[in-house]
């Protein structure tokens, strides 16, 4: 009895601290699970905020494009009405043009000639007085005077010759923003909402039509006024206690609110804590029963069993040692087995969780990076398109002028202008780095020759004391890419390597073939790997994680744009390949670009002497171009070279002329034009109606790809002698 009593006292002394430790462990698990859940919801709300902001920026981009309309600049409101009416989505969206006093000049919901509403239905007038008129403004929720539905409006100023002339606004039904809520796939119990500056609901994931236009609670309004993002407890409009997470949309100061029922928010951590508590309770009960059962036998086996139980509870492996008592040995053996299973399951669970977290982080990073690059590509691509039209006019006019002028001073000035246009052309090529790949600039090249041709360019940016090594394997596979963007990507990588090696070092460029197996993240097949390695300072993990984000840089202000690595990443992606980045602090950085093997023959690059006079041609050319400056310059150049040129301002007019009986030997058309028929669509129609009629397309920048058989594409700005030679061959063959 004395031994049993002592053992019981010892058991109680062990069980009571173990019970307290279990309670603390359960409480710790509950708190950690709750914090992790709140962090996850906050990140989801921020991502949704960026999605709403991106949607508003897309609408703003449409308005900015319309604001640059030539018809609007010359005051041709009828033409601009037709253009705007064809651009905006039908039904729930309208384009409004207002003068500086706020009077409507046109409204795509109102037919020309019908009375227009007197002014704005939104609070844009108040916002202009507060924030200024010469900027993009996003209204709060209002009721449209025409559709009598809740709507929001976006307004941009329109400048003509540097002077504010009009205001261009887009009014859209607030219900259109419901699609953004559906894309988030929030749980059914969560309530997501978009709220304007005054606290009124614009869109809501649950019963949107019932609650649209209603104001949120005073508690929410106070939180919105005090913080740009945060969390607070409240009751939603249905009276349910919720935990509310909110964030601010940057471009409009709207709020994005996600309300989660308090009961649902607590459920996951409570389940995790309860599961852990149940496991610990079972373990403690089993230990207590076993200890009491075997307390009558002997102290040493029981102590051994107690130590085994403690090891199991602490997560340590239990090693089985026979004690000579069948019951104790059986329990000890089972505990040892259980400890191995628990440790194996724990290791497997940790590995799966780590893989899932890593995959989620990679997917989220790729999504955000892709959205940034897409937005940047749309902006720079539009600018490149407009600049290429201007450069096309200058290129053609300067070449014609150089052939007609005979004064040395004039010829010298023309040559200077040509060099300036060449620099501007290179600049627009860089602007297109983040846009979609342009078919007219694609060539199938030997990657080794391309890299060797860039060596001198790369050496020019390196510091003295930096050793450059270039290794190109034999029999490299051809690749199809934009050579200018490839050279620019290598140049950006060399500049980054130079900045990482302030005291000099080694820059190694290695090019070789490789065959890869398919994975979840990429397709397999034959690739050419271009590896660029430096011996610089390297990047820590936090910098490495953001190195491919546009505009992210660790350099001081004014010394880095943050677009070097993103341009190389965009080039690899546009070339249907990918880029990998690895770096070690103090050891250096390696960037690998994988380019898919091309089955096309190497492209022939024709050499042309500078200042060469264009050849002669003949036949009738139907020239389709909406830019009057480009039309004037190119028509003059073609006529001087012997062509009979007929002009159409757009694809609709060109089809009408051909249907009316116009006999043309070749059609030369721009791709991006106003109207219903683009250049690519015109080529497709002619391929069906007149399969023997040659078609040549020109592009400054476009998201479309010309995949029509026999259609050739010229990149703007093109030389007039290049165009004359191509048209002469096509018209002569016909």
From TrEMBL:
Domain of life from the UniProt record: Bacteria
InterPro entries: CheY-like_superfamily, HATPase_C_sf, HATPase_dom, His_kinase_dom, HisK_dim/P_sf, Sig_transdc_His_kin-like_C, Sig_transdc_resp-reg_receiver
Domain Histidine kinase, chain residue ranges per copy: 382-599
Modified residues (4-aspartylphosphate): 670
Keyword ATP-binding attributed: yes
Reaction equation(s) it catalyzes: ATP + protein L-histidine = ADP + protein N-phospho-L-histidine
Keyword Membrane part of the UniProt annotation: no
Keywords: ATP-binding, Kinase, Nucleotide-binding, Phosphoprotein, Transferase, Two-component regulatory system
EC number: 2.7.13.3
Enzyme class of the recorded protein, top EC level: transferase
SUPFAM superfamilies registered for this protein in UniProt: ATPase domain of HSP90 chaperone/DNA topoisomerase II/histidine kinase, CheY-like, Homodimeric domain of signal transducing histidine kinase
Pfam short name (any one): HATPase_c
Domain Response regulatory, first and last residues per copy: 620-731
Name assigned to this protein: histidine kinase
Species assigned in the record: Telluria mixta
Organism lineage string: Bacteria, Pseudomonadati, Pseudomonadota, Betaproteobacteria, Burkholderiales
